[in-house]
Design a protein that fits this description.
The protein has 4 helices and 4 strands. The protein is α/β, with parallel strands linked by helices and about 130 residues long. α3 crosses α4.
Length: about 130
């Protein structure tokens, strides 16, 4: 199915991490990027990358999509930085998508926009894995 779609296909975990079997299957799938929830499962996500590697492109869920607390750009940078330390074991990463850990749909518009703003600030500051 992913091969038939003309755009990039990103499979992203939310509210947790993949189990070993699902993750192994995902690494073999024809997807462009694998996403990780670094809000609720940063340690498990890092463990998967250390043990099994990752795709060349990753999506990092670094803001909480189900909480109105707006993270600081520093918190976003810290979450990415901690995950980044596990990437050398997995090889290089070409593209990093900086994302919420789940949809922002249910948040008030002002919080939704603020969280997107924080992601933009982090990217503008040159945060890459």
């Amino acid at each position: 199915m992913a091969g038939a779609f003309p755009g990039d296909v990103v499979v992203h975990a939310f509210w947790g991490a993949y189990d070993d079997r699902t993750y192994g299957t995902l690494l073999d799938a024809a997807v462009d990027a694998v996403g990780y929830d670094l809000v609720t499962a940063p340690e498990r996500s890092a463990e998967l990358v250390r043990e099994f590697g990752t795709h060349d492109d990753v999506a990092l869920g670094v803001v909480d999509g189900q909480n109105t607390l707006v993270e600081s750009p520093g918190t976003v940078r810290d979450r990415i930085g901690r995950f980044e330390t596990h990437l050398p074991a997995a090889g290089s990463v070409d593209t990093v998508y900086v994302t919420p850990n789940t949809e922002l749909f249910y948040l008030p518009v002002a919080k939704f926009e603020a969280k997107l703003g924080v992601l933009g600030e982090a990217v503008a500051a040159g945060v890459t894995a």
